[in-house]
Write a structure and sequence with these properties.
Strand content: 35-45%
Distance between the termini: 24 Å
Structural class: mainly beta
Radius of gyration: 15 Å
Oligomer: single chain
Number of helices: 1
Strand order of the largest sheet: 4-3-2-1-5
Number of strands: 10
Helix content: under 10%
Shape: globular
């Protein structure tokens, strides 16, 4: 098997602290005025577990992912540009609430981590995907599909165990 050399998402080691914990809430901060059905678009995400809160956002040039412990600092979010959406009650995502995090799969395009797929007990998944400069959120990430740059992501590593 060929070893993949890539730059991991900054702070990726922080997801280990959430393994085995139940997801309590999912909050998205969307750039621009969000439409009610546009919760997956470009933005930042906070995942709140039993004893750990992880925030995921893009880096300075929006070309890499950052994982941080704690909430997104709301004072830095100008309400004229950011819309907060609580996803814990959205039908597609409410089934994740109460599920335990088993593992996180890190996918790469050969340069950077481009997707973090959070695997929960019962086979539920959610993914944070960096597509060009957009940081997207989805429950149906398909690693066999090419991204907008024509690259098919490859699994770099799994943090945690299979469910």
């Amino acid at each position: 098997m060929k070893k993949i050399t890539t730059t991991p998402a900054r702070g990726i080691e922080l997801v280990e602290g959430a393994l085995g914990q139940s997801l309590q809430s999912v909050t998205r901060y969307l750039f621009g005025v969000a439409q009610p059905k546009d919760v997956t678009g470009d933005g930042m995400t906070t995942l709140c577990f039993d004893h750990t809160m992880l925030s995921l956002r893009s880096g300075h040039n929006e070309d890499f992912m950052i994982v941080e412990r704690g909430p997104i600092i709301q004072e830095t979010l100008d309400p004229n540009y950011w819309t907060q959406v609580e996803l814990s009650t959205e039908t597609d995502f409410s089934t994740l609430i109460g599920k335990k995090l088993c593992h996180v799969d890190c996918y790469t395009d050969g340069f950077e981590d481009v997707a973090l797929v959070f695997g929960f007990d019962g086979g539920k998944r959610l993914a944070i995907v960096l597509d060009d400069t957009d940081l997207l959120f989805t429950s149906n990430f398909d690693p066999s599909q090419k991204n907008s740059n024509g690259v098919t992501p490859q699994l770099r590593t799994r943090i945690g165990l299979s469910c």
